[in-house]
Amino acid sequence: MKSTVVNFLAILFLLVTGSCKKEVRREAAEPEAYTSYGDSVTLAGYWSTEQMNRKFTRMDKTDTIPVKFTATILEVCPKKGCWMKVKLDEDRQAMVRFKDYGFFVPKDATGEVVIEGKAYVEEMPVKDARHYAEDAGKTEEEIAMITEPELTYAIEATGVLIRE
Length: 164
Prior knowledge:
By secondary structure, this protein is of the alpha+beta class. The chain has helices at 2-19, 49-58, 126-135, 140-144; strands at residues 34-38, 64-76, 83-87, 93-98, 111-124, 150-163.
């Protein structure tokens, strides 16, 4: 009788804990070729782009969270490689800057990247938005159209891995 109760409680525990929605971090299935920039980053335990996008949409301007996630590079600063933009979904992107300008990425970097650092939501001042637009090679007309601060998803990266 005692073992039946224990077995029942064990099965109940597994059902309850197994049905709770848990945040899943992805593990690399097999070693792939990546180039590391900044602090050492491993492929263990990163979030998907979709998970990171959901986290950003729940954040307020006062929130800062540690992150490690994968994304696709959309754009890199063509002057120095001192920032990059990554895709979160069809309509959203995140601006990635590198902690203390301690490292840069190749100006022609493309493809998948794993980013580790801290994420936050910022209201980017017009002056900064124009500066980044100028860096990106936007026309004077495009730059002049920036007249309001932009709400931006941002990451201060301590390290990145770029798939070769």
